[in-house]
Write a structure and sequence with these properties.
The protein is α+β, with helices and mostly antiparallel strands. The chain folds into two domains: 83 residues; 237 residues, BirA Bifunctional Protein, domain 2 (2-Layer Sandwich). It is built from eleven helices and nine strands. A seven-stranded mixed beta sheet has the order 1-4-5-9-8-7-6, sandwiched between helices. It has a two-stranded antiparallel sheet with strand order 2-3. Helix 1 packs parallel to helix 4. The radius of gyration is 44 Å and the shape is rod-shaped. Bound molecules: 3,4-dihydroxyphenylalanine. The site of 3,4-dihydroxyphenylalanine (DAH) has 11 residues, from strand 8 and strand 9.
């Protein structure tokens, strides 16, 4: 077999670029077959040397060309194989992760907060475990006052059934009104703030939850009147429920306000004609409010000859329920994604 024949038969078996490199060095390398042949030239007589030399060079050239050609084919084959191995099927549907959403209570709370902040109110907070003093006493709800029965209180631990009161006894706050006392004790008028937060009552059914959210509001300054209260709450409710919503104040009672009022708005569902939600009255009770009782001012050391003020308190779930048409308060706390994804 000639050098060329053996090269060609070996070339046929080469299937990778690595094997090709080996073959190249076997024939054309420093110690390759052709290099060795060239080394024999000086020992030949001049005539044979010329013929043999020319033939080696021609073979070398030919081998080089074949190697190049083969390399080209191999490289493109290898690229094709790599591409098909790493192929991604972009027709497969992707994995979709639903983005999280805000809870309806959070949405309404943010909306309400924004409205009051735009009217110059600041935001205050108070503890959820509250002393009897702040939750009741200072708000003019003394021990054994019938108003304590209005709110089914969770007492903390050993206070159950005890007659302890004042700073001694602790409760889960039944409303956000104690924040009024805390802020007034720590600062002086003029005051204008809201206090959102969780409150707790021992009550559970379709419209009551042992934990829910309230927003308290307090304004204290010189010459604050009931008309200011009415104007503010009307403006607020129209921002939340639309510019045409009718608002009315009904006389009511709260120990910490005098006079007190229940604030109603025209039924959001039947527009006042009477339905199941408003129990046929056309009106929906939306919050409690009133002028701060002088006894409360006395408790925090404010001069009632100089200052007056109003307060209000509303349930956030109640407002969210009216806005979104939710008829069972328990839905807010069950964490059911089918419910939560609707907001
Ligand atoms: N704290 C009352 C409640 O939870 C709501 C309330 C009524 C708050 C009248 C007030 C107010 O500030 O003036 O039922």
């Amino acid at each position: 077999m000639t050098t060329l024949e053996s090269f060609l038969s070996e070339l046929e078996a080469v299937a990778t670029t690595a094997a090709l490199r080996e073959l190249r060095s076997k024939y054309l390398g420093k110690k390759g077959v052709l290099t060795e042949q060239l080394k024999t030239l000086p020992s030949l007589d001049p005539h044979h040397r010329a013929v043999f030399g020319a033939s080696i060079n021609e073979t070398k050239k030919y081998i080089e060309e074949r190697l190049k050609e083969h390399e080209k084919q191999l490289t493109s084959k290898e690229i094709k194989a790599k591409l098909s191995k790493e192929k991604i099927d972009i027709t497969l549907p992707g994995y979709y992760k639903k983005p999280g959403g805000r809870h309806p209570v959070t949405i309404i709370l943010a909306e309400i907060t924004d409205i009051f902040v735009s009217m110059g109110f600041s935001i205050e907070e108070g503890p959820e475990v509250e002393s009897d003093y702040y939750n009741f006493e200072a708000l003019n709800i003394p021990q054994n006052h019938p108003a304590r029965d209005m709110q089914d209180t969770f007492y903390i631990d050993s206070n159950v059934g005890s007659n302890r009161s004042g700073d001694d006894a602790f409760v889960l706050r039944t409303h956000t009104s104690p924040v009024q006392i805390r802020v007034m004790k720590n600062s002086s008028p003029p005051l204008r703030f809201i206090a959102p937060g969780k409150v707790y009552r021992c009550d559970s059914d379709i419209s009551h939850s042992p934990m829910f959210h309230q927003i308290e509001g307090l304004v204290v300054d010189k010459d604050i009147s009931f008309a200011n209260l009415k104007g503010l709450l009307e403006g607020f409710l129209r921002k939340v429920f639309g510019p045409d919503v009718p608002v009315r104040l009904r006389p009511s009672f709260f120990p910490f306000t005098e006079p007190s009022a229940e604030v109603d708005m025209g039924c959001y569902f039947c527009k006042g004609s009477g339905c199941r939600v408003c129990k046929g009255t056309g009106w929906i009770e939306i919050m409690g409010a009133g002028m701060v009782d002088p006894r409360v001012f006395n408790n925090v050391g404010y001069d009632t000859n100089q200052y007056s003020g109003f307060a209000f308190g509303m349930g956030i779930e109640r407002i969210a329920s009216l806005k979104y048409g939710i008829d069972d308060i328990r839905l807010y706390y069950e964490g059911d994604l089918r419910f939560l994804r609707q907001f």
